[in-house]
Each structure stands twice: as C-alpha cells, then as structure tokens.
Amino acid sequence: MEASKVAGSRALDWFTANHLRVNEEKTETVVFSLRRDDFLEGSFRFLGIFLDSRLRWAAHVEYISIKLSGNIYVLRQLSRSLSPTVLMIVYLALCESHMQYGVLAWAVRVLAGLGYRDCCRDAFQHLGILFFPALFLLECLIYAHENVVAANLRQDVHGHDTRGKNAIRLDYLRLSRSQTGSTFHCWKFFNSLPSSVQILPNNSFRRTAKKVLVANVLYDTNDFFNISFPV
Asked: Which residue spans traverse the membrane (predicted)?
C-alpha cells in the first residue's frame, strides 16, 4: 500500500509540473491483489464499471441487477399500453446494453406475456433475444474473430502437420483467476468453431454466430461446446 501512495504522489507531481490538475474527489487508490486482506477490500467505479481490488465482480453484478430491476419495472408498466413491436424497441434501449454486464432473468417474460413460472426458452428463440451466457459467448467470438491475426497458432510453436495446427495456442496459466479471464475464453470458444466458420468475413461471421446462439438457448457457457455450427 505504501508503494501505491508513493506512485500516486509521483503522478500528482508529474501532473502539476505539466500544468495539469487532478480532481482528487474522483481519484481512487486501489491495490489489486488476490490475498485475503481486509485492508485491501473494496471496490470503485471506473467508466461505469465497478472494479474490485480482488478482481471479483460481485459489486458490479449487484449494481447492474438494480439497474435492470428498475428498467424491467418500466417495461412491465409500458406493456399495458404499447404494442409488442414498440415494447421490443424499448427493451433494446433499456435492457440490452446492460445485458452485456449482468444477468437478465425476467424482462423476456414481460415481452412475451409469460407468467413467473413459465419456461422462457421458446420465448427467447421467438423474440431473437440472447440469454446472458449467449451474449457473453457472442462478444467472445467476435473479439477472437477480429483479433485472430494477432494470436499465436499451434503451428507457430511446432512444425508438426497435426489436425489442430491452425488452432489458436492457449498459453499455460497457473492461476485459476487468470483462466477465467475473457481473452482465454475467447480463444477457447473460437477454437471449437469449424474452420469454414472461422474464416467468414466479419459481417457474415456475426450473423452466423448470433443465428446459432439464438437457435440454441444456452443456460451455461459450457453448453456451447455441444452445439453444431453450419459447415
């Protein structure tokens, strides 16, 4: 912690020397560590995302859940007077952006007129809406597809003519926290795609990936490895 204070002091000196001013009310000091230390506990908001000193997402999930809860209430009230088409537009504006960060459980029930105990699977497919795991998967696939040229392939580290030589090489990660990082999952999901899908142009790749994810309602990201993409 002392080192972070020294670094912060040096940063302030640099800003002052360059005629810049730091808004101290909006400045936070945080030490990222996996150690269990009460002194390091806490979270702060940065560009709309709550960051945790121990690299956890509990604070951000709670924040997003509250936002979604309020927006779903608005949807429920509007559903009494708006058509399904207009209601879908409102849903996309109020909820879909938050779907990238949190789990949405009940909004689709409002759109489809379902009861609290009715199954949502068919409604998600009919409305073309992705479950949160599928949204995460789609973002992972798009990221991997757009950055595959910067990745290391298996054939880059050995000269053997193996079946998976064109697959992205996954680096060994000692910490399980690192294995739950987005980049690791992006390459892992992308490797499971048929090569004919991997080489599609950007727009075609997006459409194909979303179409398959909508058709296969996924409750868990691990289910992705059991679905089939068109070859």
From this structure: 86-108, 123-144
